[in-house]
Amino acid sequence: MSEIRIDGADSIPPQPILVVPNRVDLSTMLELEKALGGKARVAWLVESSLMPGEAVMNHLRQSQSAGFVCALHQQNRDFIVAKVRHHLEMGRHVVMLPGRPLQAPGTLTDIPANLLTLFDGTTLDAMPVYAGMYNNYFDAAITTREPYDRLHISFCPALRAGNQLGSRLQAAWMSAQTTQLEQHPMLEHPSLPQLLVEALLRNPQGRLLDGIDDTTLHYRDILSAAVMTTGVLEKHSTTARMGIILPPGKLSTIANLACLLAGITAVNINYTATPEQFAHVVEQAGLTRFITDTRFTNMQRQFAWPPARDLIYLDQELAEKGPWKLKAWSTLSKLRTPQQLMQHASISSPDGDTEAAILFTGGTEDKPLGIPFSHRMLLAAAISLRSRLQLSPGHDILMSIMPAYTPAGLIGGLLLPLLGGFDMVTYTLPAAGKRICTLVHQHAAALVINTPAGTRAMLKAATDTNTFTALRYCLCSGAKMPATLAAEARQRFNLQVLECYGAAEVLPFAAAAMPAPDTDPDTTRPCQPTTRKGCIGAPLPGVAVRITGLYNPEPSPNPSYPGLVWLKGPAITRKYLGLSNEDTPRMHGNWFCTGDVGFMSPDGMLTILGRKVRFTQMGSEMIPHVQLEEYLYKIFNIPQDETERKLAIVSVPSRTGGEELVLLSTLHQEITAADYSILREGISNLHLPRNWAPRHILPVKFIPTLPNGKLDYRKCFIGTCQMLKIRIDP
């Protein structure tokens, strides 16, 4: 018998209303019927192309419930609206009763876009209802079908009739889902150390395969080594935080696990950072000790290493304890329950809101900012990612190559395999394409998360068309994925490269494209989209998206129109180190401003157009710099080179008020009237508005870029203002 929880039933209006649940099975149907006043007060709306399941249909027949079937492909909207209104006038709530479409795991709703937007612009109010289905174990903590341990139904405040009703229903469901996930049984009183110990002892023969030296370490031994390391940390640590300077591999896994077990905050550090960035990170986090290993310090000589007295060489510490100590802990773990082992090793279960890890922003627009994450947030992120992946523990192998100082590396490359019982293959260099190809093929990896540059290197190094046969999830994270990358993977290897969208403040991603669900030749059920050209994919479970205007945090009346993207959820930061929520404009209550411009389509797909600074608003029109740059390459017949920027658009203050566009170009050493003539003619030929034409063309020797290859917009802006003698505030 599943536990059932009902929220918000007191907000059900006394007068009949259109009720739109995100999904309905038999248990949900019975609870809705009861909450809405019984069978006599409910009429069920069914769409013929998406009929409910057999159990629901049997209940409808046996109970002789009121309702009707509509057919969108045969009946016009006015006819369907009239049928709904008839039942409302008869004193019945009309409940949309969706069937089960083909969909990826963890999808927000069973209602396809054409049905969800059916009542846009009508005079019908609607009440959103979110039915969440949950289990008390990690592998299916969020589910969309029976069986489940808990059914959580949230009645949301009614929505006024009008335009974008479907988008507003979607927003209400996302918000309710984030609230429900925070109340998930695993997150109400989480003990991440206990869950990790239980998972590793439940899967003691799980393996970490280190791609550097081809060694194998079983999960029981990883746990034993981590327990041994907790004593080392307690001996050397002088603060509650510990720096970790290690690439993906067995020592990084042991170090991070040991910090969690010891109640010490793990601060994984970017070992490609500049000396200035590293010094800033150390000062902001208050670090005095750092875990590393001898081999890595020799490999990474260009890094600004702290004095040797502040380094804990984990390889030496474990060697000094000797294999007999590891074997003793391994034997003890076989004879003790997880609780007994934790008690013997003095491992506590901290409060869920206790700080567990700190990540830092990349410092691309300013100095790196520290982002604290609690035990609850780490677990919520792992649950969210796991719910979208159709993978089998004990069968599928995950590849971990993203460093733990990134959200993808910390969650997808470390916590996900340990909590989920997946074997993992680790490797140090994301851009080492040839070696990664070998490891993916040799171990039949099912999931790889890499940067677009690393993924391209992997594809370039592959010579065998069967290299990626077992790879079902090839995820791209950390930067915008070029369309050519996906096309190359599909053409050469029939491999679908899936783009993820996120930031250092978001664990592990905000949204991700997913493989299409397996089709069934014996069914005509509609298929919920999982990706589409130009878009990122759907938000992960537990992530709510809000689209606002560029200069205010209030929700846009039309989320399908580009605006500023805000995020909310249990795994999304609400503060920075040393700053309160009120001290940063990027936080507004529980909402985090990404600084990106995008929009949500009615089918739940998120599209990101670019950074806010790379848009210029002229009147009611927003001009995207990136898109304009692509047009300018065509207008001036300039081949695009991924390794070198030849032009860039910058927006600067206009002397007459507002903003004006400037073109920076490395190819125009002398600007002539002919250049402006080509520019204006090209804009006209492409049927673009006249205000898309840059006001100035400035010749430059080079265009500044950041270490990750992105445009250094700040330097471009300052340099442009200096060349045009425009005064800007410091």
Distance between the termini: 64 Å
Q: List the strand order in the largest sheet.
A: 10-9-18-17-19-20-21-22-23
- Share of helical residues: 25-40%
Query: What number is the mean pLDDT?
Result: 90
Number of strands: 33
- What is the CATH homology-level superfamily of the largest domain? ANL, N-terminal domain
Gist of the model:
This protein is α/β, with parallel strands linked by helices and 730 residues long.
List descriptors.
730 residues; alpha/beta; Rossmann fold; Luciferase, domain 3; 8-stranded mixed beta sheet; 21 helices; 33 strands
Write a structural description.
With 730 residues, the chain is α/β, with parallel strands linked by helices. It has 4 domains: 3-162, no CATH class; 192-509, Rossmann fold (3-Layer(aba) Sandwich), CATH 3.40.50.12780; 541-611, Luciferase, domain 3 (Roll); 619-723, 2-Layer Sandwich (GMP Synthetase, Chain A, domain 3). The chain is built from 21 helices and 33 strands. The chain has a 9-stranded mixed β-sheet with strand order 10-9-18-17-19-20-21-22-23, with helices on both faces. Strands 1, 2, 3, 4, 5, 6, 7 and 8 form an 8-stranded mixed β-sheet that branches. Helix 11 links the parallel strand 13 and strand 14 (311-313).
